[in-house]
Design goal:
alpha+beta; 7 helices; globular
Length: about 325
């Protein structure tokens, strides 16, 4: 397993107890972790990450004093041993823009040279501190946000963010998660790892959410948190009693305060033009576009030159 991602949006701040089974962690070839959250009423995100923190054997592990960390937005990345153990390249990433800190994480692989070519043409305000394609992708997005003078994710427009993610996915295959502490967007790339999502509303049959192997668990056992509405993105379903949906290739869903507020699939269904095209790209080197049907809609796979020439993506 390369990495295990979880993104949580709550209706009001909560402090779940985050736990791991280090034996399962090792069996799945996972090694380090990264966590991001926004303290109550704070515009700055806090990040806790360690490239290789779970090499102890056998015993369950929880994050010490997690109850201090009360938030309505959480990003959790458990990364694989195959990834470089360098703190600068451990996700999630956080960077300030518009008076807030935004957080970002990615799952998959992209051609970093393609992203660097774009960064060379952009403002150099946001540049990666490490060598990962994930941070380079984050900088590419933030430079575009800065050019638009946007303060929040919602200022950009969900269709535009969706197109930016499609463009990035054309350089390989990846899933993306981004948040400004108000809204959280999750995207699944064409041919990338599965991503699931669910909205959990109280009362719950159990306060604990966990994957089947219990690599990751979160317990909302605090009496203040038992009635919190939860919107969760995850690499696998985290509860048996809830309905989990799988993101389709190229689909992006946006959550705010525990509720889904935008869905690229629903946006296409609601458009006045039933033949609206959803632009996706593969990492094909062929010069001609490919057209195919998927999920009752038309998709076009463009070559890099055609895709980047679209002014709508800038």
């Amino acid at each position: 397993m390369k990495n295990f991602l979880v993104a949580i949006s709550l209706d009001v701040p909560a402090s779940p107890i985050i736990g791991f089974d280090t034996k399962q962690y090792q069996q799945k070839n996972l090694r380090g972790h990264g966590f991001a959250w926004y303290p109550v009423d704070a515009k700055a995100a806090l990040i806790s990450k360690d490239p290789q923190s779970f090499e102890e054997s056998g015993r369950p592990k929880t994050i010490d004093d997690w109850k201090r960390f009360r938030s309505s937005t959480f990003f959790i990345n458990l990364h694989g041993a195959s990834e470089d153990a360098v703190i600068e390249e451990t996700q999630p990433f956080s960077k300030p823009i518009g008076g807030r800190e935004w957080i970002f994480m990615m799952q998959g692989a992209l051609d970093i040279n393609e992203i660097r070519n774009i960064l060379k043409k952009q403002s150099h305000f946001y540049e990666p501190t490490g060598l990962s394609e994930a941070e380079a992708a984050f900088c590419m997005i933030l430079n575009r946000v800065q050019n638009r003078d946007s303060k929040k994710l919602s200022d950009i427009g969900w269709n535009r963010i969706h197109k930016w993610f499609n463009e990035l996915n054309s350089f390989g295959s990846a899933n993306f998660f981004i948040s400004d502490g108000i809204t959280t967007a999750g995207y699944r790339g064409l041919g990338s790892e599965k991503i699931f999502y669910a909205r959990r509303t109280p009362p719950f049959s159990t306060t604990i959410i966990s994957d089947q192997d219990r690599i990751f668990s979160a317990d909302f056992c605090n009496s203040l948190d038992e009635l919190r509405t939860q919107f969760i993105f995850s690499s696998s379903p985290l509860s048996a009693d809830d309905v989990w949906s799988e993101l389709n290739d190229g689909q992006m869903v946006v959550a705010k305060r525990g509720s889904k507020i935008w869905d690229s699939e629903q946006d296409i269904k609601n458009t006045s033009n039933p033949n609206q095209i959803n632009l996706l790209r593969s990492n094909s080197n062929q010069n001609s576009a490919k057209v195919f049907q998927h999920n009752d809609r038309t998709k076009i796979i463009l070559n890099p030159q055609e895709f980047q020439s679209s002014a709508e993506l800038a």
